[in-house]
Amino acid sequence: KAGVTQTPRYLIKTRGQQVTLSCSPISGHRSVSWYQQTPGQGLQFLFEYFSETQRNKGNFPGRFSGRQFSNSRSEMNVSTLELGDSALYLCASSLDRVRETQYFGPGTRLLVL
Amino acid sequence: DAKTTQPTSMDCAEGRAANLPCNHSTISGNEYVYWYRQIHSQGPQYIIHGLKNNETNEMASLIITEDRKSSTLILPHATLRDTAVYYCIAPDSNYQLIWGAGTKLIIKP
Questions:
Q1: B36, B62 in Cβ contact below 8 A?
Q2: If you average pLDDT over each of A32-41, A63-72, A89-98, B49-58, which comes out highest?
Q3: Predicted pLDDT at A1
Q4: Is B59 helix (H, G, I), strand (E, B) or coil?
Q5: Are A98 and B49 in contact (CB < 8 Å)?
Q6: pLDDT at residue B31 in the model
Q7: N or C: which end of chain A has fewer CB within 10 A?
Q8: Which residue of A has its CA nearest to B93?
Q9: Distance, in angstroms, between A64 CA and closest chain B CA?
Q10: Which residues sit opposite B20 in a β-bridge?
């Protein structure tokens, strides 16, 4: 079974731009969660989608948004990028409820200049 | 806030057992404890989880104290490839995993 895939793996943007990251969960998994990881803050939960609906949301500004498609693939978007948005963005999928074991993708490393 | 506390870093000799402790005195009776590890710049990797009984899989063993206030992850024969940050995690009331800083485990040859 293929693991969680994320595209692109690396991205460089400038302040004020927007970015869209993509995540394909493990086949059959319906829950997708997104995390931001920075050296100073560690892994922080952004949001979780299940069956195309946002089920939980972390404490991030509205510039961070996401969606999930009927095939469970998910995208997250960050608008009006700031320097502090530079981070590793991780996607994790689980079979059904988020309390099931989560399987992570390799992440997208975003650098904002 | 994370519900778990772990030492910041630990060393272990290659070939020996690595024992990583975790305190989770505030978790409720029906909350699982999960262990993940993250090798530099990769996505976290699931290791094991447990509720009250000890658990073992091909990667590690998890020993949970009877009062469930702490647990220990055991890597029976550590190799250099086990060098990573190890996270002990419990979910919050929305079942989200709250990640702390983890333990940086360094395996020395």
A1: no
A2: A63-72
A3: 66
A4: coil
A5: no
A6: 82
A7: N
A8: A99
A9: 18
A10: B73
B100 by DSSP, 3-state: which? Answer: coil
Mean pLDDT of the residues in chain B: 90
**Best of B30, B57, B87, B95 to mutate (most A CBs within 10 Å, chain A):** B95
In this predicted model, what pLDDT tens digit does every residue of B32-79 receive, in sequence order? 899 999 998 789 999 999 988 899 999 999 999 988 889 999 999 999
CB burial class (10 A; 0-12, 13-18, 19+) of residue B4?
buried
- Report the alpha-carbon distance of residue B7 to residue B60 in Å, rounded: 19
Beta strand spans in B24-83 (E): 33-38, 45-50, 55-56, 61-64, 70-75
Give me the residue from B32, B43, B98 closest to A90, CB to CB: B43
* DSSP string of A15-42, one letter each residue: TT--EEEEEEPPTT--EEEEEEEETTTE
Compute the distance between CA of residue B103 and CA of residue B65 in angstroms, rounded to an integer. Answer: 19
Q: Residue B25: what residue type?
A: S
Give me A79's structure tokens: 């608008």
